[in-house]
Amino acid sequence: xxxxxxxxxxxxxxTMRRIIKNLLHDLGYANVTEADDGNTALPLLQNGSFDFLIxxxxxxxxxxxxxxxxxxxxxxxxxxxxxxxxxxxxxxxxVEAAQAGVSGYVIKPFTAQTLKEKIDKILESxxxxx
Amino acid sequence: xPESNAAHVLMSAEREPDLLAQLASxxxxxxxxxxxxxxxxxxIALADKEVPDARQRxxxxxxxxxxxxxxxxxxxxxxxxxAERTAKEAASxxxxxERFRSGKISVAEYLDLIKRIxxxxxxxxxxxxxxxxxxxxxxxxxxYQDLTGQIIRGVMKLVSEVEVVxxxxxxxxxxxxxxxxxxxTNSQRGHGPAVPGVDEGAGVVAGQTDIDALLSDLGI
Lengths: 130, 220
Known about the structure:
The structure holds 2 protein chains of 2 kinds. By secondary structure, chain A is α/β, with parallel strands linked by helices. Chain A has one domain: Rossmann fold (3-Layer(aba) Sandwich), CATH 3.40.50. Chain A contains 5 helices and 5 strands. A 5-stranded parallel β-sheet of chain A has the order 2-1-3-4-5, with helices on both faces. The longest helix of chain A is centred in the C-terminal third of the chain and has 16 residues. Chain A is globular, with a radius of gyration of 13 Å. By secondary structure, chain B is an all-alpha fold. Chain B has a single domain, classed as Helix hairpin bin (Helix Hairpins), CATH 1.10.287.500. Chain B has 4 helices and no strands. In chain B, helix 1 packs antiparallel against helix 2. Chains A and B meet through helix 1, helix 3, helix 4 and strand 5 of A and helix 1 and helix 4 of B.
């Protein structure tokens, strides 16, 4: 995976999308597309060639967990790295996300360092075949 | 005293406690009815005017915070390129400057270095001024906190008032206090952020370290 990777950032708040986009730019990832919920994200994912998905959980329309499930149920997308970046803090939810196949989970509010660490960790684990 | 009158007095004396009890009950009912009426009219005022007002006020809070966040992000994004330009140009001047200091520079390179430093002094000054102005604007963009704080405090006061009226009504209706509210949230759609003092305790993670440990246990 290189710095040319295509990211899709899904969050209903445009300010949060801008923050994540700026942080990704600082990390050297310049190719970032935005979507405001699962319903707008899914067609983009199905028709595009994204390398990484960062999604919020609590969104109007299709929530992040449903988007994750839809991604894992789609042949083309089932191995796509998915990082959940959310304020949802209940243990049962984190377990649910893990069972649905999430690759990483970052709780809001978060730091640039945490985001970097989690992205790096996911990419490292992808680079080494299981 | 005639006999019939004496019997009447005796009968009245026997019925007096009964009457008093009825009177007490009537008074209590009247007080309850008045309380209910007072609560009902307050509830109507709350439902008709103050709750819709509060909704509008909170919507204004959303607008103000959204505007402030975007304004701040605009300014931060605008400050990146001039700051980066200054750092980059300063770094690129370091090497020829070092050669000049150690006397290992040709005349042509020296003339070029002078030209570049002249240019750098002008652009660095302009770029730093841009960043400084943007930082002052970022500072000003935080004034939303004062306005939204006042609005939110007003809405909190209203919520307390609604709570009092509802508790009173519930008591008048003969309901036991402490009935548990039905949870209206749904794990699938999300609960929103955990709020200190409300969502603490069982079932809520303490932070990223907690999540990392949990995910590690789950093999992620």
